[in-house]
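pinned: reference chain
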Amino acid sequence: MLKRVTVPGLFPPPTYSHASVVEAGTRLAFLAGSVPLDAQGRIVGVGDPVRQAGQVIVNLGEQLRAVGSDFAHVLSTDVYVVSGEPEVLSAVWEVVEASGLSAGPHSSTLIGVACLGYPGQLVEITATAAIPEADTETDSEADAEPAGRPGIQ
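pinned: its structure tokens
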């Protein structure tokens, strides 16, 4: 179902794979960016990218559970950090590593950006995940779940 590839001719990545291959017929989830908002829509960890990364990981876990997947089935992520400082990006990546996301390892890109969508937001992670075959939820059941908190889509 899932094959993670580290290319022998390329520099070995520290905690991720160069590619993930999924056979046809596997259900995939393309997740919207996980952001550092609490259940009331407030930014968690204002000014603290490491704390925000922790909340983003918690929220990403919730997104994955909602579609019948988990960190072990994440195929790829893009980790966005509002910073041009390698030390800040590395600190956020340490949170990603500690979360279990890198246990796959999955394919990932760590990106320093100028700004993100919410005022005060410093971190966001988008992900693509495989949904294990044991998932029996129908699409209509998934659609019946709330799309998000009011004003947050």
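why pinned: Residues 49-66 form the longest helix (18 residues). Confidence is low (pLDDT under 50) at residues 135-153.
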